Structures
1.
Amino acid sequence: MNNQIPWLTIITLFPLVASFLIPVIPDKQGKTLRWYALSVGLIDFALIAYALWQNYDLQDSGFQLVERYAWIPQIGLNWSLAVDGISMPLIVLAGLVTTLSIMAGWQVTHKPRLFYFLMLAMYSAQIGVFCAQDILLFFFMWELELVPVYMLISIWGGPRRLYAATKFILYTAIGSIFILVAALAMAFYGGNVTFDMAELGLKNYPLGFELLMYAALIIAYGVKLPIFPLHTWLPDAHGEASAPVSMILAGVLLKMGGYAIIRMNVEMLPDAHYYFAPVLAILGVVNIVYGALVSFAQTNLKRRMAYSSISHMGFVLLGIASYTELGMSGAVLQMLSHGLIAAALFFLAGVTYDRTHTLAMEKMGGLAKSMPTVFALFTIGSMASLALPGMSGFVGELAVFLGFATSDSYTSTFKVVVVLLSAIGLILTPIYLLSMLREVFYGKQTEELSQQILLDAKPREVFIAACLLIPVIGVGLYPKLVTQYYDVKTVEVATRARTAASAIAHQPVQVFTQASAAPKLTAGPELLGILK
Amino acid sequence: MDFASLAAQLNTGVIAPELIVIGTLLLVLVGDLIVGRTASTRWTPYIAIAGLLVSVGALYFQWDATDTVSFLGSFNGDALSIVFRGIIALSAAVTILMSVRYIEQSGTALAEFIVILLTATVGGMFLSGADELVMIFVSLETLSISSYLLTGYTKRDPRSNEAALKYLLIGASSSAIFLYGLSLLYGLSGGQTQLGQIADTIAATGLDQSIGLVIALVFVIAGIAFKIAAVPFHQWTPDVYEGSPTPVVAFLSVGSKAAGFALAVRLLVTAFPLLNDQWRFVLTALAILSMILGNVVALAQTSMKRMLAYSSIGQAGFVMIGLVIGTDAGYSAMLFYLLVYLFMNLGAFTCVILFSLRTGTDQISEYAGLYQKDPLLTLALSVCLLSLGGIPPLAGFFGKIYLFWAGWQAGAYGLVLLGLVTSVISIYYYIRVVKMMVVKEPHEMSDVVKNYPAPNWNLVGMRPLQVGLIVSLIATSLAGILSNPLFNLVNGAVEKTPILQAAIAARKSVATDLKLQKAPRLTVSSLK
């Protein structure tokens, strides 16, 4: 704890504290509230930018702006916040996307008080997740976001919103059980009880225990990211949520999964990562190919984008599994780039929906004529998403590919198969995105549509899309714009992971005896005995 | 012997809080007789609440008392009992807040209701510190008989009558079983009635392997499990909860339950140290069954009161985790959870009462669309239910975290995992109600909500209800975030209680003995 201004606490708590004023603000014609919410969002974003600009040292790979206050010392829970190269860009992303989504929800007239209250509560929870350095605090923040998302989907969503929201909350709640269990198990392991993530990473766990923890955490974060068999909530939630909520869901919440995998699985459990990395790579490929194929089969605009998110998050997994600096850097870049692109696309889908009142692509067509600006923005977004050179998606995916291909942790056959299959996914991406553009914007307008008044994008909407797409192009042209912020950290993560891996690889015999004996010693009999 | 020296000899000061409640009770009773029914409704509830709060204040001053044994060992006002007595007195105070309007509307006498409720409170408070068999039974019966009366208090309502009869019959038989268990203890110990001496004598006479002791244990646990509504002794709960006046249900689910836990801790820890493993084993089974059955059956309920009844069974299961593991943290977590449970559950019941007063129904489906008509009630009920479900940043989240933390620390992995899974299940049915209130569109509103009267807080008894609502709302929202003082309170209570410390030390030495014999945690883990 130091005497500086507690910036992270301020930026984490400010939206939440501000949200408590919402019930008492007089709301004349529904205008005061949205301005209030927007200005809270903007102020917080400005605070984030200022605090990081002033205090963040790019050359330092460790934790910065560290704040640590004992919250409930009796159980070892600390209000412990810090940022490093991985969390810092994600905090900025969360601030940007959430602020823009408040702006995107400009026309919410249905229960506006509750809407803006929940949005601001989400704002805090997201930043809290990325800042938390205490695993219990992380869990707290992770759970904090649960009910607001549930409400946001179930009140302002599409026709099947209740089903989608319930599915979301059950999946996430069950997933987060694993976080808590892993947190408790690791915290109580050995003599000293601590929930501090850095200290947990320093403990020497037996391999079997570590594998168990890794598996538990990967299930929890696999629900969020999502990883292939645990993804089924996502198309429903993203498809049914309203545009501002989808923006946050796709833009930020998915990244919480990726972030947590890097932060906990890779950093805290490097030995287990050695064994799980091939699994992650395979799951990544499955995500890429499966997501792309299923996306192509969707007729609902938002569901198509939701599956495309699944496909794109596969690259994050691949990057994490690559064991190279480049791959790790690509994974982070892919998260950031997808955060921007997905938010833009979901926002534009919302803009289109506002005009057409349908998300079924077969009912649309020929929109380019009446909505040229939306069409242009949509095209830019899709191009970015299909990784056109000069856009951030390209850089991210290329870095992942290069990183994985140059990795010396895998046999060349494995690498060839993985890269080949994900390249197929890369080819599928333009197919479903371009066909989406074709169905929505080209061709002839349907009868129903021609009766609607199809106004082009308003300045507010162009502004939001531009805020998201300009960084995409900027990063695409000059990736260092972003990579400089986290490079030091990703290099360190990758190096550490590699060191741990090579340490294991050089003593295989010992490891395997450990691996077979350890689970029985640590958790086996007790767990079994209990479950009887 | 004059009165003062007698009082000093008996160490009467320890029961000052109870004496205050008894004084209040008499004041209400006599005052009501003198002034008459209509005039007395104006001040009796406030006198009663004031008395209860003064009693809580008196408890506060006893916190550091060293000489806690009074009435020649019948009553032990140690720190543990102080926390329990505080919980019971507070729950009675909040119950009175919520019952004024309810009793008014049901057309029965308020003062008598308060008198009976205070009697039950006195019974519960004495039970929390009772250290002797006769004392335990007398205070238990004081609590039980007043509870039977309370459940049947709205005598014109046939369902209330049915509930009272059911409760009386099942309660009487469980008391009989409990008493039989006590009589076995009395016999086995050769005529001892003090809990500590019972254990010593039984150990000294070498009867610790006696089958009679096991039977006594089973009977005693049956009696306690009835009070805390643990599965499979819960069958009375849903029917009684559904039929009784709602404020009574609130008291039964918090105050009476807390008294049951107080009895469980003291009796099992002090009188059955020889059967430590056995009683923990039985309670583990009860906890598992309660968590599963309470939470799963609550899913299917359509009546709010029945849902809360089953949820309170599940909640008791969570609390029992703390009791079963029997460590410092375990007992503290149990007390902490009971404290936050007090506010969140009473808050939920206050909301249910408010809703049923305005609409006359308890059906969950009738809550549809309430957000549009009464945001305050919606907020309060949502917060209390989400807190019961363990959603951060509400108090229940911290309560559950502490329980699971303590459970994991003690190696009760299975119980913790089960607790986690069942709390996810519980989130589902709690959030169903929230969804009903908040998510439903205006056109999906239920008929009663469409005709919902504009909130009018000026009716007789509405102010107290409002106060109760807001107090529990604030406590539920903030008790988690600012829980440091509560943690200090419960940890201090466990540290300052000799019987718990002795039990914990004994368990530790057993555990180390086992470790020395190279059978690490074998018995401990197989029990949990």
2.
Amino acid sequence: MVQFYSTILSNSSIAKDFYKLIFSWNNSIPVPGPGQFLTIRVTDTTVPLLRRPFAFSGYTDSLNAASIIYQKRGIATELLAGKSPGEKLDIIGPLGNCFIVDTNIKRIIAIAGGIGLGPMVFVTEYFKNRDLDIIFIFGCRYKVYILHSSLFSSVTPVICTDNGSAGFHGTPVDYLRTFDKSIFSESILFACGPHPMLNGCHEFALEYNFPCMVSMEQIMACGVGACMGCCVKSVKDTGFARVCSDGAIFNSRDILWT
Amino acid sequence: MDLRVVIGKRVLNNPVCVASGTFGYGSEYEKLIDLTNIGAIFTKAVTLNPRPGNEPPRIIETPCGLLNAIGLANVGIQRFLKEKMIFLKSLGCAVIPNVAGSTEHEYKEVVKILESSDSVFGYEINISCPNVKKGALAFGTDPVMVESLTGNLRKITEKPLIVKLTPNVTDISIIAKAAENGGADAVSCINTLIGMVIDIKKRKPVLANGTGGLSGPAIRPIGVAMTYKVSRAVSIPVIGIGGIICAEDALQYLLAGASAIQVGTGTFIDPAIPGKTLDGIKDYCIKEQIECIKDFHKYIK
């Protein structure tokens, strides 16, 4: 991890309340991987006070640029949405661990719910040149949240909406149930999104006996493992795990789902 | 310029320290900042046995502040000595474990075990954590218990004993005097204030613990006022804590009577704040022709 000032390259809306921020990522700084995150101090004032964590949605070595996708839904992200190209960002990163694929895996099933999209876009880009089959499922409440297809250069996402206003009517896990179960052997499930969706992914992977990695979310203060504030319940060790430094990517079987 | 701070029989190189609970065991910030410039690292609280901590959620941001109920999650004294002290002692800066417990026996055992380590500069006695069901805060609100606990720890160690005070009392100077009477070498002033945030949709407190401890710039004027009051009630050094995020904040504490300060929540906002704070204090001393940091309190009008 490094603390540095990055320059905003672009910051534009990609769907209702969703933004994509692209910023400089000098090649002297450790390269971010899919599942990792950074923290941004969005203001020099004390409102909001804490840095905010955002998962990487991509990194392009040739452009010295990294990106995040964020949803405008509070004071910090409203301030972020107001920033323009050329402005500086106080960044600490890359933080946390990555989604990884064992050699025996032939297929990634990437499931994104809502703003969980960012890291899954990164997953599909990162693994596209490996000899892997990638299925990308994006779940959202209704069709205004559907993003432009240019975001997904390497795969075509399956869209699921809760109200059936576009794509498959149901959740991503409902959609998984339409597959022939033979597809799940040699597969790994990667998921990022709301807690109930992650829980659903975990239970599905348990039922069909294949691995599932989830990106957990919790309010963070330090982001570096010092404050113990961002803990989630775990079946291991002390019963708690820090999202920032033990994750944010966890084997779903290590989480105590409640 | 003399930045040294005398606490008991020992000397800190400079007055800018990092607060317990906000700096882990030091190694978490190793890659981000130069730890050797820190006056002292006050470690995450350590207890006799490991503690898992409270149920999540444990933290929530408030206006200019942070409410936390971590619950003294820590690895316990044995792992602290075997794993955490190895890194800490390699730094060359003062290491002050924050010692917590539920009974007097636990405090005494932890200090006895830590006495085996030459790398321990001194002890910050945590009698003020608001987030555990028993112990800690109960000690900190009763002057008789504070004097007795401090006195019994005094018999075990000659190293600096720093008692960390809670602001959640009617008169903090009474507790500070009790610590001084028990033989404390300094007091840390202040720990967090008890607070609560309620989720009006779920109609329940946001933190699983219900209440938490409030820190950050929101509490700075309270910390400054209490430092002012305590430093006039006792003759031992006062270490000012509460909402310091820049040199100007730290200077308020020093003028109020603090001999040293701790940056806590500020480190979360920007890990460079402790270093920038020290630089800003030096600049102020040069500009105002202050030769000695220990004379600071004389300059308030």
3.
Amino acid sequence: MAAKEYLDSAGRPVVAATGIGVVTSLGQGKEDNWSKLTAGQSGIHYITRFPTDGLRTRIAGTVDSLFDRPVTASELSHAFARLAVREAVAESAINGKHEFPGPLFCAVPPVEIEWPAWRALAAECDPAKPVDVEELIRVAASKRRPDWHVNFLIGAVAERLAEEFGTRGLPISLSTACASGASAIQLGLEAIRRGECDAALCVGTDGSVHEEALVRFSLLSALSDSNDPPEAAAKPFSKNRDGFVMAEGAGAIVLESLAHAKARGARVLGVISGCGEMADSFHRTRSSPDGKPIIGCMKNALVDAAVTPEQIDYINAHGTGTPENDKMEHVGVAAVFGERVKQVPISSNKSMIGHTLTAAGAIETIFTLLTIAHQRIPPTINYKIPDPAIPLDVVPNVARDAKVHRAISNSFGFGGQNVCLVLAGEPA
Amino acid sequence: MAAERDTWITGIGLISSLGEGSEPHWKRLVEGDAPVVDNKLFSGYIVHPLAKIDFDRQIPKKGDQRQMEPWQRIGTYAAGLALSDAGIAGNAEILGRTDMIIAAAGGERDTKVDTAILTDLRGSNQPDALLNARLQSDLRPTLFLAQLSNLLAGNISIVHGVVGSSRTFMGEEGAGVSALKVAQARIAAGQSEISLVGSAYNSERLDTLVNHIFNNLLLKGEFVPVFAPNRPTGFTTASVGVFLVLESSSHAQRRGAQPIARLARVRAANFRRQPGAVEAALTSLVGDSMAEVDATAAAVISMATGVEPATSEEARALTKTGLPVRALASRLGHGVEAAFPAGIAVAALAVKAGRLFAPMPNVPIEEKTVTPLRQVIVTCVGHWRGEGLGVVEAVH
């Protein structure tokens, strides 16, 4: 049984972050990311990975430095994740090289056979007739590509990480759409609280910017098409916001019970003091107009952390920059924080790094922990035209020093997914 | 940590090639009906297509049905059956706090659209620009949502009103194991009172079939039961929708719900696959559970896929237990993410009935039986990776 100072008010183990790692379009590693984030830099640029002829949106926050050959979303997601995990595990100094003492919870984008592979099959189909099921099967059977099979299995990214870093048991691959990274952290938090493990490796990664993914989001009218200049496209909470910008990256966090961290003399970067979720049954892509699930998930998180809204110093917004999301997020925070909502700073990392989708919840949790550690709030950039319907302190355009002991990080996703994490500095 | 709480299975929703609902499934299994197979649809590769289902009965709005690809319809339908079976369908108070963990695959392609685009790309001298143009004009805007892994959960929230929480696990067979493991652990530890857990798989889809063909993982030609002597390697994909309502025994008792069975334990494992590894690791994994069961009233329901060498290694490990063995894939086919939840569902029906279902003719490992049956060990060894085991017990 852990000593009393290592338990929360509900008698559960306090869960600390002791290592973090991050990759975004701003750069690799937390130092590089933090300096650019607080300088208000954007990582959004024109897409060069594939031809964008005729596409409405031609910009994204892709991470292009790792490969000089065409790769699948699975390979990219794996490459980002292993860089982030390496950084996090090294910082935590929790283990030997190949033996992480806990399970892996890994948020990954759903993958499937991609167009280059289909086109390679079609190229060998009988040219005398249209491409059909029978021919595709015949060619697939003659090609025998075990490497493709693994690349197009959703479980492969987590499996490869588990093998490299020696995490315990069966790795869990998960998706709650744009809340996935936060769900990975929540699963780790819950497992440690249950006493199943002393540590957990929680990862969100996404390398899925390819032509079809871009078109799909575009067809849902979710993306900004303010292509010129790219760095000005993501404008959360502005009146002229017109959608999110797809982006890539990964975030990895080593969680462990505070007792375990203290016993081995680890440096505590912060505490995950609560988590809340609530699903929405209103619509596949839109939130309930009354904001009930968004409000509910934030309230559940505060209750789980046993704190009141008055004890929250900063909100790391989901803040995608779509007209709908930002409006509903305002409805939600206004209901939870009441009159005080105008005084609580709220900023959107997505204004700079874009929407890293599956990775967003993990990356933004890491940036929130850094916000608390540095007592400095990264800005919402591109905030030129305030939306009078959203009267919030969005930390416009310039980073700000502030007293931040405790913060929340919001994540909302298609399919009615809502997750909110409560984060705090090291307990006194 | 507080003492572990009992986890009951209080609702089952099951649809497959064998039909709809618990009783018809159990009847066909007990009577030893031949599996429903099709080897015409996909050039000789064997699939187990879904029985005819009137989707309107669980998904009344056509508009909702149109927003789903078949795998989501299969799952949403089975989820509705499970909620009805547990007696909580339409109960907004309970559904509002019912947790959900789903094991899902991803994307289901619109093959007509894809093959038409591929045909035209082949003849184009600017294929990249043409692909962009065709994706923008030919993809249904809502297709994306019909493909997203977590939108099975999203559809269940919308159609059935389950909104306590919503998590989607992915990653083939292991996702089904982890979904049940986490849901059971949350209930046992008091983090959840009631959970809807399940999965869906559509066998009648080209994209996943092609991916398995890349690695020679499918059985072609004549259907042969799993564990039959000299069976060729490969699995036969199954259309399956399976959902379970798991509940703390105290929550079930408070609302007067009857248990079908107890989900005593779920273990997940990650065997490092080398020749011999499955036999050794499964022997040890099953061995841990043998200490928890009464060998005179227990059996194994195996979710062996038929992929070698894993299936032969599993057979050797299971033979060592001395328990009667049945392979569910010989009846239903292999439902990948849905395989393990389907095994747990059938195990629950078996302990409730107090007996095992009929053995497969000419499969020596299935010759034994046991009555009364009180405990079932469900084993799951994924076609590539991901392993697990569950123990299901009679409550009374």
